[in-house]
Automatic annotation (TrEMBL), chain A:
SMART domains with a match to the protein in the record: HATPase_c (SM00387), HisKA (SM00388)
Coiled coil: none
One GO molecular-function entry: kinase activity
Enzyme Commission number: 2.7.13.3
TM segment ranges: 7-24
Keywords in alphabetical order: Kinase, Membrane, Phosphoprotein, Transferase, Transmembrane, Transmembrane helix, Two-component regulatory system
Reactions listed under catalytic activity: ATP + protein L-histidine = ADP + protein N-phospho-L-histidine
Protein name, entry field: histidine kinase
Domain Histidine kinase residue range list: 174-391
Top-level lineage group: Bacteria
CDD domains tied to this protein: HisKA
From TrEMBL, chain B:
The protein's assembly and partners: Homodimer.
Subcellular localization, as worded in the UniProt entry: Cytoplasm
Name used for this protein in its record: Phosphate-specific transport system accessory protein PhoU
PANTHER family on file: PHOSPHATE-SPECIFIC TRANSPORT SYSTEM ACCESSORY PROTEIN PHOU
Keywords, comma-separated and alphabetical: Cytoplasm, Phosphate transport, Transport
Chief localisation class: cytoplasm
NCBIfam families xrefs: phoU_full
Record's function text: Plays a role in the regulation of phosphate uptake.
GO terms for cellular component: cytoplasm
């Protein structure tokens, strides 16, 4: 430290004066000089070992490494930019943007014009950036200027919020689109039949009428599905009270869903004596939707297995397994969204409304159950529904009173 | 990349890469906006794209100047030289992508009666694919990721298939409705432009591959 090495001018002057005084007083010159040397030497020793100054406590100025460690494990992606280059990127940021951004120009990491103009301005501020990593995601880029050329960039993911508001508008748009498609073909065919005035050959008329009928039925299914969806959604919060023997219900519903033509494709393997509290119509619909899906999207001619088991943790487990081509993993999280289709053209061709699994999900939720979908490409899909049992319920033998 | 002994060179290369990324960001947004303007018939947006292209052009000349200066002053070797050469070429290609977006924006103003054209539902999907290619190739450039660059090259086939089906679709539309030929022809140009955007994204991908590995990817498109 600077003040430790300060030259003790006053003390040295005193020593010098003392020596000179000794000389004047008649002491031999070498003695006076020796006294001066010893005096000065003692001063030098005292100065060389000064009392250690107490180091001032740091008032929070970080160096760069501290800053890096400080933000490393933050959940939000954080970056530090220095003179237009990225000098620190925490773990979340490296995962998001790739480790290569370290040391690169900021624009390599954020090339969106909004972000570039914000960062070039060098003032604190925000910018919304679309398509930072994937094309549809939305991030808010929050830039905080610290000193000249040094700034912190925080990234906030807004994709989910945008998704929710989009989902609402999408639902209305989708629903009207889905309703309009069958209507236009019904109108088209009926108009043709009317204008033609009965001149068309009967087999052609029958074909047209068949199309009109099937489209009208599709429309009816869709309206029914929409209604049950909104009903289930409305009742979502009140737990059903009716006690249901599950086995009969599942077997009837599964056969019902298969219809006379596809009866032999369904294999039932149900354990009796399982009772849950539920809404009979909704459970029936759940089984119908699942079995119908499995038959529709499973490979033609392959069997669909419906299993009902009692799990040790007081739950009923219903599994519907098909041997189809399976569902790609990226579709799995979205399957229960309304009108979500992995392959729209195939779903429409087979008369799907795009609402089946959405209804299933809501029914399961209302019964305080769980829905799992497991799928392996090329092997098939299993849909597993778990619903809590009635405590000690043996509904098959003796119906107990509601407690 | 390891640091260079000459720090100024390091800074030049970083700046060059930053400029390319900035150009790319502008071009990427231009492609997306052009498709939006086309579908919605948004003339104001189209005008914005046409004006925004000037910025891309200005950046290109900046990249050119910087690249030439780096070569003249620093005489880079090996991967550094590849980097600079690739930057030079990529800048040219990205500028073309910007031009195609501008052309789409211009065409979008000429299109009347949007509801009657079925291809207008196909074009956005095609545009989306092309925009995704541009996005991915710029990410590959930033990360020097040769594998991602090869994926982009593979994706071009899908854009080409789209182009072929839209072409057939539009030609039959023109035969059936001669009154709409001028609009249909505009749409054909738009499809062509999108297809070119895809091709140019592929070119950039080849440059990225070259800069990263020193070789061009094997071209199996015969």
């Amino acid at each position: 430290m600077e003040q430790d090495r300060a030259f003790p001018v006053a003390s040295l002057a005193l020593a010098a004066i003392a020596s000179v005084a000794m000389g004047i007083a008649g002491a031999p010159w070498w003695l006076a000089f020796a006294v001066f040397l010893v005096w000065a030497g003692s001063l030098w020793l005292a100065v060389a070992a000064p009392p250690r100054a107490v180091e001032p406590v740091s008032n929070g100025t970080f160096n760069r490494d501290d800053m890096g460690e400080f933000i490393e494990h933050a959940g939000t992606p954080l970056l530090v930019a220095e003179n237009g280059r990225i000098s620190i990127a925490n773990k979340a940021a490296r995962n998001l943007l790739g480790a290569h951004v370290l040391g690169q120009d900021i624009r390599v990491a954020f090339r969106h014009p909004e972000a570039v103009s914000l960062l070039e301005r060098g003032q604190s501020g925000q910018a919304a950036v679309q398509g930072l990593v994937r094309r549809r995601d939305i991030w808010i880029l929050n830039f905080q200027r610290l000193t000249d050329g040094l700034g912190v960039i925080e990234l906030l993911n807004q994709t989910a919020e945008a998704d929710i508001s989009r989902a609402h508008t999408d639902f209305v748009a989708n629903a009207s689109h889905e309703l309009r498609t069958p209507l236009s073909s019904i109108i088209g065919y009926v108009e043709t039949l009317r204008e033609d005035g009965g001149k068309a050959p009967p087999e052609m008329r029958r074909k047209f009428l068949d199309t009109v009928l099937s489209e009208a039925k599709r429309l009816q299914n869709l309206v029914n599905d929409l209604m049950s969806l909104s009903r289930v959604e409305a009742e979502k919060h009140d737990l059903p009270q009716e006690e249901l023997p599950l086995r009969e219900l599942v077997e009837t519903a599964a056969r019902d869903a298969a219809g006379p033509d596809r009866q032999d494709r369904v294999t039932l393997d149900c354990t009796g004596g399982i009772a849950i509290r539920g809404d009979a119509r909704q459970i029936e619909q759940l089984v119908r939707n699942l079995v119908d899906n499995a038959l529709k999207y499973g490979a033609a001619g392959e069997t669909v297995t419906v299993t009902l088991r009692r799990l040790p943790e007081a739950e009923a487990e219903l599994t519907v397994t098909d041997k189809g081509e399976g569902i790609a993993p990226e579709h799995l999280p979205h399957l229960t969204r309304r009108f979500y289709r992995t392959d729209p053209s195939r779903s429409r061709a087979s008369g799907g409304t795009g609402l089946g699994l959405a209804i299933v999900k809501h029914i399961v939720e209302r019964h305080r159950g769980r829905l799992d979908i497991q799928s392996k490409l090329g092997q098939g899909t299993s849909v597993i529904v778990r619903i809590p049992l009635v405590e000690g319920g043996e509904a098959d033998t003796a119906p107990e009173g509601l407690s | 990349m390891t640091e260079h002994t000459v720090k100024a060179f390091d800074e030049d290369i970083t700046r060059l890469r930053g400029l390319i990324a900035e150009m790319g960001g502008l071009a990427e947004v231009a492609v997306q906006n052009a498709m939006d303007a086309l579908v919605k018939g948004d003339d104001a947006l189209a005008k914005k794209i046409i004006e925004g292209d000037k910025k891309i052009d200005a950046l290109e000349s900046e990249v050119d100047k910087l690249a030439v200066r780096v070569i003249a002053l620093r005489a880079p070797m090996a991967d550094d030289l590849r980097e600079v050469i690739a930057a030079l070429k990529i800048a040219g290609v990205v500028e073309r992508i910007g031009d195609y977006s501008k052309a789409i924006a211009k065409a979008s103003r000429e299109i009347a009666d949007r509801k009657r054209f079925e291809p207008l539902t196909l074009l956005p999907a095609m545009g989306e694919l092309a925009a995704e290619m541009v996005h991915d190739v710029l990410t590959a450039y930033g990360a020097r990721d040769a594998a991602l660059a090869r994926e982009v090259i593979a994706a071009d086939r899908k854009v080409d298939n789209f182009y072929n089906s839209i072409f057939r679709n539009l030609v039959s539309h023109m035969v059936e409705n001669p009154s709409t030929i001028s609009t249909a022809a505009q749409l054909l140009f738009v499809a062509r432009n999108i297809e070119r955007i895809g091709d140019h994204a592929t070119n950039v991908a080849e440059m990225v591959h070259f800069a990263a590995t020193g070789t061009y990817p094997v071209d199996d498109d015969l």
